Amino acid sequence: MCPAKPDLGNHHGPQSTEHPHDHDGGFARDLPRLLGRRGMLRLMGGVGLASLSGLPAAALECVALPWETAGPYPADGTNSKAGQTVNALTQEGVLRRDIRSSFGAYSGTAKGERLELELVLVDAQGCTPLAGYAIYIWHCDADGKYSLYDFTDQNYLRGLAVADQAGSVTFTTNVAGCYDGRWPHIHFEVFESVQAAVSGEASVLTAQIALPHDVVAELYETDALYETSTRNLDRISLATDNVFADNTEVEIAQQTLAMSGTPETGYAARLTIPVDFDATRSAALARPPAGGPGAMGGRPFRGAMPPARPDE
């Protein structure tokens, strides 16, 4: 049974002339386009499209997350900075829950408000927990800066954790800021095990998590730590973001955090991450010269690569 997911509220996915959505079609229209014929047959077990609105809640909560670019900042051994390849996954101390401070040979603490983040890893086929799988997450600080990239002498806001029997992992981190050109987000890679992560094996999913607009907008407007984020958030939308814009409404709903809190009490957020092990990934990521502006990151993939999507 799929772990329960908090109500995401009235969330609306991207709408633009380039990526239109026929909202009158609703979930019955979006789901087959998202999953494809094989995924639909597997999910429905022969049930007709007319009965999609009656699907169990677990099915609606297990829409496989789309593959996304790892961006230029993964520090997982696949990208370089100033001519040096950095792999945080092989550094002592990366397996941890609290990722607000640097670890190993580095010291320093990231700017931002505390966030207790629970991620639940499940197999999209059957929505069963992926116990023992590992997830590596990384994101920017309150100023929109990344460790091991903008700050080469820090490795905060990066960490690796192992899912328990329920598929759950918990990180203590900070609320990410919003930098110019991107919707606020968290990067992650899922691996079959910790051993797979640290040995350079391919991820089973590389994707990004979207932060909810209303919660972060209020934080950005009232907290001096995020003084540049309000302006940047006003300039971007899910419909114009160069990673999330081509996702369907149901994908966006699935990959957006359920989040609440205040700067005084701290924030809490939860997300279920369904992994489709049969996902079709047909295009290769274009990689600019190593270390150059916008250089792409991401581990090598078994088989075909995920669709190319530029990241800022």
UniProtKB/TrEMBL annotation:
Keywords: Dioxygenase, Oxidoreductase. SUPFAM superfamilies: Aromatic compound dioxygenase. Residues 18-30 have a biased composition (Basic and acidic residues). GO terms for molecular function: ferric iron binding; oxidoreductase activity, acting on single donors with incorporation of molecular oxygen, incorporation of two atoms of oxygen. Residues 107-181 form the Intradiol ring-cleavage dioxygenases domain. Residues 1-30, 287-312 are annotated as: Disordered. The keyword Amino-acid biosynthesis does not apply. This is Dioxygenase. It holds the Pfam family Dioxygenase_C.
